[in-house]
Amino acid sequence: MFSLTDKLTRGYSWPVADAPFLLLSIRGEDEAADDEYQAMMRFTGLDEAGLRRVRLTHRPLGEVELGHWSGIILGGGPYNVSDDPETKSETQRRVEAELARLLAEVIADDFPFLGCCYGVGTVGRAVGAVVDRAHSEPVGAVTVELTDAGRDDALFAGLPDSFEAFGGHKEAASQLPRHVIRLASSPACPVQAFRVGANVYATQFHPELDVEGICTRIDVYKDHGYFAPETAESLKADARQRDVRHPTVIMSRFAQRYARPT
Fold first, then answer.
1. How far is CA 254 from the centre of its chain?
2. What pLDDT is recorded for position 7?
3. pLDDT digits (tens, 9 = 90+) for 53-79
4. What distance, in Å, lies between the first and last C-alpha atoms of the chain?
5. What's the pLDDT score for residue 262?
6. What is the distance between the alpha carbons of residues 177 and 124, in angstroms, rounded to a whole number?
7. Which residues contact 245 (CB under 8 A, 6 or more apart)?
8. How many domains does the chain have?
9. pTM exceeds 0.85, yes or no
10. SS3 of the chain
11. Could you tell me the residue range of the domain that residue 26 belongs to?
12. How far from 16 is each of 49, 67, 69, CA to CA, in Å?
């Protein structure tokens, strides 16, 4: 028997009121993956029927019929496209190959897509950006600054010119091709968000992360090389002092802008 998500990714059609969104997760740890899913639903305003999840660490992606979905969201996680190929697990290599095939179709069709953190690496690699370790940022709050294009963008318009968001990443895009629109930057990272075409987005910061969310991830990933494990409590204390109410607007706007009937 196929699950509902299996059937949608294998090309079945379902008589639902609205085409659901697809969340692709690369988090192998249940606590982090489930917290991410709950946050994505909370800030998009979608329920489990409206946001179907595929955990790529647990099963192959299979065929995705774009016409069955309102849009696709890719979550972040421990993978980096710039990782030494010799260190990549078989699962990571499979996931990267599956995402590369999917993104080729997404970009060609200008299909609604939002990649959070890992999206900069995967979408960036797909469009020919330079993705490397030159602009990594520690776990915690970063000050995101909108470009002129960001201030005019459908997902970012109306946000403050400068706002706080949570991040933490080992790789980043240090250079974008001319046809890619840079939407935001931060003092240590020149590309905090970009858009390809009209509908394909990637953010380096995490628009789905609130204070409790980043505290969960600090606990889960304290031994993954993002920060010294003994600093976990101080990182959580600092996070609790931050105002991160603006980035989640991007999640709700993405869902509202692209939700469509079947």
1. 12
2. 41
3. 999 999 999 999 999 999 999 999 999
4. 24
5. 64
6. 9
7. none
8. 1
9. yes
10. CCCHHHHHHCCCCCCCCECCEEEEECCCCHHHHHHHHHHHHHHHCCCCCCEEEEECCCCCCCCCCHHHCCEEEECCCCCCCCCCHHHCCHHHHHHHHHHHHHHHHHHHHCCCEEEECHHHHHHHHHHCCEEECCCCEEEEEEEEEECHHHHCCCCCCCCCCEEEEEEEECCEEEECCCCEEEEEEECCEEEEEEEECCCEEEECCCCCCCHHHHHHHHHHCCCCCCCCHHHHHHHHHHHCCCCCCCCHHHHHHHHHHHCCEC
11. 4-258
12. 9, 13, 11
Q: Looking at the predicted structure, is the pLDDT value of residue 2 above 70?
A: no
- CATH code at 180? 3.40.50.880
Q: Which residue has the tokens 């600092």?
A: 238
- 113-116 and 71-74 strand pairing: parallel
What pLDDT score does 69 carry? Answer: 97
Q: Which two tokens stand for residue 129?
A: 């950006």
- Rounded (10°) angle between helices 90-109 and 118-127: 60
For the record, the structure tokens of 250 come out as 């991007």
Q: Is residue 210 predicted with pLDDT exceeding 60?
A: yes
**What pLDDT, on a 0 to 100 scale, did the predictor assign at position 227?**
87
**CB proximity list for 65: less than 8 A, separation 6 or greater:** 8, 9, 11
